[in-house]
Amino acid sequence: MKHLISPLDLTTEELDHLMNIAADIEKNPDKYAHICDRKKIATLFYEPSTRTRLSFETAMLNLGGSVIGFSSADSSSAAKGESVADTIRIISCFADIAAMRHPKEGAALVASLNSGIPVINAGDGGHQHPTQTLTDLHTIRSLKGKLDHMTVGLCGDLKFGRTVHSLINALARYEGIRFVLISPKELRVPSYIREEVLDAKGIPYEEVTSLDNALPNLDLLYMTRVQKERFFNEEEYIRMKDCYILTMDKMALAPKDMLVLHPLPRVNEISVEVDSDPRAVYFKQVQYGVYIRMALIIYLLELEDRIC
Ligand code: CP
Predict the structure, then answer these.
(1) 131-285 CATH
(2) Cα(280)–Cα(264) distance, integer angstroms
(3) Residues 6+ away with beta carbon under 8 Å from 175
(4) Which one from 52, 135, 139, 224 is the annotated catalytic residue?
């Protein structure tokens, strides 16, 4: 049985394969409308979500399947003290596949070790968010036509932003990728990402604090919000929260073909005036997320033979 806990659970060949299916889904949605007839996804969300949970649910409904689940720990028996291991054993009796978001790092891994059905990590604490990464990669490949030979700026909360950690892991496997890590000193990428991914693989990167200086050299800018829910100290959050705000003045410094991505939700870090710039693709990114999650569900349920 396959699970998706980290983006590295998929080889680059498997990623290409999923993105090819996702591209075909976009062109020929009717071909996929009944692939998951009589299948159920359980969305087990112990933390708030708009995009990820509803994207999974939309993906399964688009495939002809159905959805069960909960959207907060308080509305599940976690509130009575039930463990993740016990919960997934129960859910394995009800559903064919599960997507889980949990505030604790490693929770999805624990679930996968106790599960009778494929488990997808929909975000575990400040650790990883592999389906956001699939979404990001599919967006980049669809709009840039490649995943290699690019300078990628990652800006904002690089310490707690799990989407950033997953994206670095995934892009580091492609040739000619260079990272510009733009953050305040307090919110730098964790040392395990620097040492075990970037340094270990010899990936070129620089850590900078100025977004303005970085912008002229970027092929992609990945903006992130400061992750309020992961701060222990509210004063520290308030001090950091508006550290970067992308405005049209700043966009004037960027190349004409630079793409701006954001996993969303946005707080203040991208001014709404930027939304109408053709380089701002964060709302398109959400639609690509549905296609790639449809492809992932088909793949993990081993239903590709039903594609006609
Ligand atoms: N990108 C993302 O994970 O959004 P949600 O928190 O709304 O799921």
Answers:
(1) 3.40.50.1370
(2) 12
(3) 148, 149
(4) 52
- Locate 56 and state its tokens: 């999974």
Of all atoms in ligand 1, which is nearest to the CA of residue 47? 6
Q: How far is residue 294's CA from residue 297's CA, in Å, rounded to a whole number?
A: 5
pLDDT in tens, 48-90: 999 999 999 999 999 999 999 999 999 999 999 999 999 999 9
CA of 87 to the centre of ligand 1 (A): 22
pTM of the model: 0.95
- Assess whether 51 carries a catalytic annotation: yes
% of the chain beyond a pLDDT of 70: 100
Span from the CA of 101 to the centroid of ligand 1 (angstroms): 10
Q: What is the DSSP letter of 196?
A: I
Q: Kindly indicate whether the domain formed by 7-128+286-306 is annotated with CATH number 3.40.50.1370.
A: yes
Domain ranges of the chain: 7-128+286-306, 131-285
Split at pLDDT 50, 70, 90, the class of 241 is: confident
* pLDDT (0 to 100) of residue 135: 98
